[in-house]
Amino acid sequence: MIAGKTVVYTSGTFDMLHANHIKMIEYARSLGDILIVGVNTDELVESYKSQPIIPFDERIALVKALKYPDIVIPQHSLNHADKVKKLNFDVFVVGDDWAGKYDYLKEQGVDVVYFPYGAGISSTNLKQRIYERYEKLQQEANSHFPNDADTGK
């Protein structure tokens, strides 16, 4: 708490920004007076999953453009113990795909909320749908020419 105001921190990769990201950030905003959003750096993301599609500079710019955050910062680590001390946040909100991972923050007096992300939309699902659509388009394009067609080359 800072000056009697509840500080909420949420964070994520926010790759291929989508409706579930917005819902979580909007929900986090509703829990306090000051919302700080951490955006995972490319280096951090690559330490636990594949490289983001959208580069860090673009992802952080997109989150800064949203109306909900008061402050948007780079996030270099998934360990938030030091951030609690530095940012004095009271509430931490993260997607429920991380359920249990941040329970250690409760020992520091932080309320931890695992936001139910909902089915259907995720950056991983979006990437898969794009890949599948690309594969289908490629097959359709290739079916226009028989394998033995003379294309003049």
TrEMBL record:
<dbReference type="Pfam" id="PF01467">
    <property type="entry name" value="CTP_transf_like"/>
</dbReference>
<keyword id="KW-0548">Nucleotidyltransferase</keyword>
<dbReference type="InterPro" id="IPR050385">
    <property type="entry name" value="Archaeal_FAD_synthase"/>
</dbReference>
<dbReference type="GO" id="GO:0004105">
    <property type="term" value="F:choline-phosphate cytidylyltransferase activity"/>
</dbReference>
<dbReference type="GO" id="GO:0047348">
    <property type="term" value="F:glycerol-3-phosphate cytidylyltransferase activity"/>
</dbReference>
<keyword id="KW-0808">Transferase</keyword>
<dbReference type="InterPro" id="IPR004821">
    <property type="entry name" value="Cyt_trans-like"/>
</dbReference>
<dbReference type="InterPro" id="IPR014729">
    <property type="entry name" value="Rossmann-like_a/b/a_fold"/>
</dbReference>
<feature type="domain" description="Cytidyltransferase-like">
    <location>
        <begin position="10"/>
        <end position="128"/>
    </location>
</feature>
<protein>
    <submittedName>
        <fullName>Choline-phosphate cytidylyltransferase/glycerol-3-phosphate cytidylyltransferase</fullName>
        <ecNumber>2.7.7.15</ecNumber>
        <ecNumber>2.7.7.39</ecNumber>
    </submittedName>
</protein>
